[in-house]
Design brief:
Largest sheet of chain A: 7 strands, mixed
Helix content of chain A: 25-40%
CATH topology of chain A: Rossmann fold
Low-confidence stretches of chain A: none
Distance between the termini of chain A: 19 Å
Number of domains of chain A: 1
CATH architecture of chain A: 3-Layer(aba) Sandwich
Shape of chain A: globular
Oligomer: homodimer
Structural class of chain A: alpha/beta
Amino acid sequence: MDIRTELDQLIRDIPDFPRKGIVFKDITPVLSNSEMCLAVVAEIKNHFASVKVDAIAAIEARGFIMGGMIAHEMNIPFIPVRKAGKLPYEKIEQKYDLEYGTAIVEMHKDAIEKGWNVLIHDDLLATGGTAEAAGKMIQRLGGKVAGFSFMVNLSFLLGEDRLRKAFGTDTHYLISY
Amino acid sequence: MDIRTELDQLIRDIPDFPRKGIVFKDITPVLSNSEMCLAVVAEIKNHFASVKVDAIAAIEARGFIMGGMIAHEMNIPFIPVRKAGKLPYEKIEQKYDLEYGTAIVEMHKDAIEKGWNVLIHDDLLATGGTAEAAGKMIQRLGGKVAGFSFMVNLSFLLGEDRLRKAFGTDTHYLISY
């Protein structure tokens, strides 16, 4: 079976989560299927095979899971992008807009070396606000955005356009809704 | 160099984090060292080689990172153990005591199959409260605790004794303070 068809059968729609009117894409059945995880991670590695990738920056918390798998598969450093107040060492922060209000993500100041090409990973691309904030922090730390990797893209939220305009790099996902 | 010596050189002490009087063990320099991550994950796999492990349950959020790597290395399902309100599907919860008050962790009801032997992973073992709560949920879902895996053990908090008394299984860690 095609990897997209299999993913579509595994990903579960949860109506009204985390709040009324939102249909949440639950990826936990994918994580429970180790052969599918191996296939997804292998496809991500293969997709970025022609790009120099020095590290992967993964976004808290769901992005940490497959981000860890990708770092392991590609044998590259794992860099956490965390919500405000979670990282213990010297850090920089980046604000971004939510539907109502703003949020903050943070990275350690010594998270990457200057000139590194960093792949940014999260489980799901919605509006792209968090991913764009992660990309901006990587640039502020002297790195380059090598591209973006997601398992799922919610295409109607136009996150791919936003990331292309902001960074001009490739956005890869396994399945789009 | 011995893996423990190298880990000890990488792990960073952060005084007064997350609050005054606590010395936080920052593992992010380990995650930035991909060869070290490969070595740690290989040692964990090797340690549990004689035990039947059907899945790994990893604890939010730092446990997700190396938990993902272990799931990938061992080719077994990844099961998230999350803080209250984060999991979208039908779930069970387990309360546990903190120094002041209580906390809750949750797992999906369909997270594991009956009879599965589940390895529980987190980055750091302190009092063992969260790990014990995860083990209880696995038992309530019809599974067995195959053992516990941590990168770091804070031995003066006696978490290892607590987990041995509660489950009688093996607790593995790479380095102890």
